[in-house]
Design goal:
The chain has 100 residues and is an alpha+beta fold. It is 45% helix and 27% strand. Helix 1 packs across helix 2.
Length: 100
């Protein structure tokens, strides 16, 4: 699902309620994602109630292996985004898997 798909679904659901154009809804979706990105760049935790939590974790440098040559290489320290789904989202996914 893309930003455009999300905006389209919001537009279809709000058509009569808010009276926003499709372009304005898309701009709002883009700005929301931008705000989340900015928070993560600052290593702030982003918690969306009923959906989940995004946070940044720093992975320490480690030794790895080049699979082709078997040579030992050093994997540098790096930051990764972790997502922890809310209990509500987990139960929704669990109920879907039981139906199928």
């Amino acid at each position: 699902m893309t930003k455009r798909d999300i905006a389209q679904r919001i537009f279809e659901k709000q058509r009569e309620d808010l009276g926003l154009s499709k372009g304005k809804v898309y701009d709002i979706v883009c700005e929301t994602i931008s705000i989340i990105e900015e928070a993560l760049k600052k290593e702030e935790k982003v918690q969306i109630t009923g959906f989940g939590t995004f946070k940044i974790k720093t992975r320490k440098k480690k030794k790895g292996r080049n699979l082709k040559t078997g040579e030992e290489v050093e994997v540098p320290e790096r930051k990764v985004v972790l997502f922890k789904p809310s209990l509500k989202l987990l139960s929704l996914l669990e109920s879907q898997s039981k139906k199928g």
